[in-house]
Design a protein that fits this description.
The structure is a homodimer.
Chain A (H helix, E strand, L loop, with lengths): L7 E2 L9 E3 L23 H4 L5 H8 L5 E3 L2 H8 L6 E3 L1 H7 L4 E6 L10 H13 L4 E6 L3 H13 L2 E7 H6 L1 H9 L3 E5 L5 H9 L7 H14 L3 E3 L6 H20 L6 E5 L4 H15 L6 E7 L9 E6 L8 E6 L21 H8 L4 E5 L1 H15 L5 H20 L4 E6 L7 H8 L10 H8 L10
Parallel strand pairs in A: 5-15, 6-7, 6-9, 7-8, 10-11, 10-15, 11-14
Antiparallel strand pairs in A: 1-4, 2-3, 4-5, 12-13
Helix pairs in contact in A: 2-11, 3-5, 4-14, 5-6, 6-8, 9-10, 11-12, 14-15
Amino acid sequence: MKNKIPTRIYLTEDEMPKHWYNLRADMKDKPDPILHPGTLQPVTAEDLAPVFCKGVIDQELDETTRLVPIPSDIQDFYRAYRPSPLIRAYYLEKMLDTPAEIYYKFEGTNTSGSHKLNSAGPQAYYAKEAGLTSLTTETGAGQWGTAMAMACGFYDLKLTVYMVKISSEQKPYRKALMEAYGANLIPSPSNTTEAGKKILEVDPNTGGSLGCAISEAIERAVKTDKCRYVLGSVLNHVLLHQSIIGLETKTALDKYGIKPDIIIGCAGGGSNLGGLISPFMGEKLAGKSNTRFIAVEPASCPSFTRGRFAYDFGDTGKTTPLIKMQTLGSGFIPSANHAGGLRYHGMNSTLSKLYKDGLLEARSEVQTEVFDAALKFMKGEGILPAPESSHAIKAAIDEALECKKTGEKKVILFGLSGTGFFDMTAYTSYNNKTMSDQIPSDADLERGFASIPNIPQNI
Amino acid sequence: MKNKIPTRIYLTEDEMPKHWYNLRADMKDKPDPILHPGTLQPVTAEDLAPVFCKGVIDQELDETTRLVPIPSDIQDFYRAYRPSPLIRAYYLEKMLDTPAEIYYKFEGTNTSGSHKLNSAGPQAYYAKEAGLTSLTTETGAGQWGTAMAMACGFYDLKLTVYMVKISSEQKPYRKALMEAYGANLIPSPSNTTEAGKKILEVDPNTGGSLGCAISEAIERAVKTDKCRYVLGSVLNHVLLHQSIIGLETKTALDKYGIKPDIIIGCAGGGSNLGGLISPFMGEKLAGKSNTRFIAVEPASCPSFTRGRFAYDFGDTGKTTPLIKMQTLGSGFIPSANHAGGLRYHGMNSTLSKLYKDGLLEARSEVQTEVFDAALKFMKGEGILPAPESSHAIKAAIDEALECKKTGEKKVILFGLSGTGFFDMTAYTSYNNKTMSDQIPSDADLERGFASIPNIPQNI
């Protein structure tokens, strides 16, 4: 087998992107603005200044600059672990006996194990630039916390991570890795914040939630001198940083004249999916392609496929600004049984808007079938995928098998956002057949929707 | 910072090696032959046939073919995860403030997490070629077992792994990963073999050892139809397969006209070190370079620096052929406290010979200092190194600091053989300061030496 297209396509350093791409600048119908929850007016930079640092606020609010230069310092940071490989899935294609061509962009070769490092680096850099000495954040499955621990180790910033308590107990090695990079880990809810104390009063034995950890991290940031909060998904500045994924992919494909027919990504808060599709979606908006885009979410937390398009809070404590997004309600509690991340109640506002406007498709998958796909993939391609990323694998396999039926030679691209080294408990429960699917009932969803604030939705 | 030499050098598929390099062919003074333990005569292919499959036996006994073609099927296998990156350690250099240039070849980007896959693939391929249906092996820290599980998953062969019992208990995730690839894991010693039963009779609560697991795996292989045994280090056919590491590295360095002054690798059985240095040692033997070669071993298991050059068995059960090597005696039991691998009593015969002849230097390092170096490295370079690989990091840092003293701008190359994702227990004990150094006393060594067979050593 000698292939015209190599199994792994790497860019040279000269070919690596020098700009991030801001998809919103090319959208005629832009996402609705973020609102101040008190005034219901669009937030200003001043509103956000106590929580976020200036560099990312400017990016969050900028809807018009198409190409945002990547500071040379961050280009250096990226060079320490990028470019990531774009891989032609020759073995998977053979295993499926499909006429389709399958490609995947693999973001798991860095030590944090996922794409999260692409935004952790810039966020730590802007904090350092602004003269801050520490940051706070939250982490659920642990990828984002690890990425921030690495970035803060690199830029010599203190980091406090509120880790969802049940995760910190189930994933002691994730905790150890973050600590090895110098991060201060606090299981959430904790007694270190008012938000945490309040929750512990009601239920001292709670395992915690991402929404609660966010509330604690924000509270600590605003109460600490020279400290701000960082978030690893959902917001548009995160999507901007993650556009590096799509830009590298597009450059690599363009070298070989390859045009994807379908692009697939898993979706929790949207950072990986949004980063991968941004430049390709830009082409579609300009009428230059007919590419289909597919978001794949867990059936246990279906914010696209069963959620509502509404202004909602980003956290369960209802302390954040309001974001117009696909949401299950900030009070929605996804099953703890679900492996890995992708368990956030909302979705990035840009992706939500694209979905609403029919430019982005979405589907949900149950976890046992997602792990079926993961096992197929790991045997063929040799890579242990993260449970999150395996949602994209599932959809890619389904599309490739559809091509087998129709005989179409489509080009399928998907994002392999990370590795599953810290998810072996989930793989074990899959191997032992103790894993179950967790699909919320309509009543479960109604309880979540009831937490969506009752405000005018067209502002 | 814009660098003439990129941070990461990748070969294109066309540049990837088409041959392995057999260093022994270029050695005037070759390693002594492997002996049959009964006759004390050099082993023949027939002697080895019940244990190993033909393809690897031919390679093991071949001392004259310089370049061994890599079968196209194995080139395909390699393309699924290679080339591995050669990385310029710009950040580590900056951190150390050294005039030295530091490069490392990173073998940890595949799912097995180490270089072991480079030999697992070929060994599974030759087994498949020979019409076998199953293989057996042993694993200690788990890298080799994982690599074989992946390779057997790929080539559709059954695999039974005897995993040192204490490791299988301490590393449940390693076990889960091998099982996810379809391997059958048996904690050793076990009741499935006579060798295992014998050991359990003496000590039913033993945690096992690599030597014992080898005995069990060999016994099962010779007693099972269409089954053979595979070994991940020590033997010369493994070094041959691992020469892919050095060949890729040399091609990458040659592209930029870089000549290493010092090449460093960690050494357990010698597969990673031997693979990395082979083509460079070939140049030295041809009088074309003055490169220094440094093997770094743990102070807890110092087969180079405190061992004897003698014919010895490869396993504690004394069932293998005799190998002339640096050895601590097959009865030497390294401290269980030591993190990771590198705990084998002997050393590859080719490397042992080069050491004896003054062509290869060696040093030993204590584990707390090795972890000091690992933490420095992971903060600067962003990669979590395996405890094994961190021995090479320690020596590379020491050499770079020596350059800082002398002002010399040496080029230092080291092998980063793997990642530490499954070694977080060790990192935790380092973080908690509960890790200790384990240096055997002279009396400990004498007890090991007593197990070296009393036979004429010059045959």
